[in-house]
Amino acid sequence: MTSFFNPALPRRAVLGGAFAAATVLALGAGPAQALDKVTFGTNWKAQAEHGGYYQAVATGIYKKHGLDVTIRPGGPQVNHAQLLAAGKIDFSMGASNFEALNFVDNSIPMVAVAAIFQKDPQVLIAHPGVGHDTMAALKGKPIMISNDARTQWWLWAKQAFGYTDEQIRPYTFNPAPFLADRNAVQQGYVTSEPFAIETIGGFKPVVHLMADNGFHAYSTTIQTSWKQVNENPDLVQRFVDATIEGHYSYLYGDPSPGNALIKQDNPDMTEEQIAFSIATMKSYGIVDSGDTETLGIGAMTDKRWQAFLDFAVKAKIYKPDIDMSKAYTLQFINKGVGLDLKKKLMGN
After folding, report:
1. Binning pLDDT at 50, 70 and 90, where does residue 20 land?
2. Among residues 84, 72, 74, which one has the least CA distance to residue 44?
3. Rounded to the nearest 5 degrees, what angle is found at the Cα of 344, between the Cα atoms of 339 and 348?
4. Which of 8, 56, 87, 195 would staple 61 via disulfide (CB 3.0–4.6 Å)?
5. pLDDT at residue 14 in the model
6. How far apart are the first and last CA of the chain?
7. How many CB atoms lie within 10 A of CB 15?
8. Which CATH number fits the domain 36-118+217-346, given the four candidates 3.40.50.300, 3.40.50.720, 3.40.190.10, 3.90.1150.10?
9. Pairing assessment for the beta strands 168-170 and 143-145 based on DSSP bridges
10. What is the DSSP string of 332-348?
């Protein structure tokens, strides 16, 4: 508990402050200060990958930071990036560095203010026992990928492993074609498709996390407008700080409050899927690894952004003169927020 006494102040000032505080307490506190209303749009239906946000709502972390946060789930017909650009929501969950740079490339004044996923969760999945045990071994093999992947991580895979477009097969977001062919390879998310394949197919697939093979994009960023950053930085800071604390609470504490809200927003989500996703995020260091160990969850660095841009320019995705500084800011992160909470939750 903080003492009224401050040796840097004259004794009279200390006593005066104590008397004033006691008077306020005696008269009763005034009306509670109104919370700032904030709407945050996710990138898909509610799931464990969004757990830190739901945990911050469920446990009152956002309220502690003076925020009344509404989480707006995404889905196949929802474009939160567009709604953010139009000023319809306050923050959105970004896909990766690509989305932030695409904003710059199209002169849309949006900005990434934190990276909740230090590792992009995208993976390539193969059957065991057929020689597909490394990403290099997949060169020349048919791979099922989405149209979005063609213009993003596939360009990196072509550079890094010599893949070619002739390998591409359509991915329908259905594991059936993969399960029917032992030589099939498909894309997926480390927290999702491997669980579905193991559950339906009855075997553990070979999983290649691209982030552990040289693809160093950030993922699940927090995006907002430059207008918000410039005109209301306190609100941005409070939202980022509370979100960070929510993720520590969800990963290292009791996630059940957040899980209850997740299942409320997405009744199809099962306890088994949630448990798998949480365990996978922790074991792969998706949220908490590398720079976050000293800088805290949400960390980003100029060095990683530059390395990503170097690849993207080489792949001719962006022109060399693109102004990367407009894509992100380090103003609200890298301050060690939540590290003490993590130690407390882990009993250290």
Report:
1. very low
2. 74
3. 95
4. 56
5. 33
6. 21
7. 13
8. 3.40.190.10
9. parallel
10. T--S-TTHHHHHHHHT-
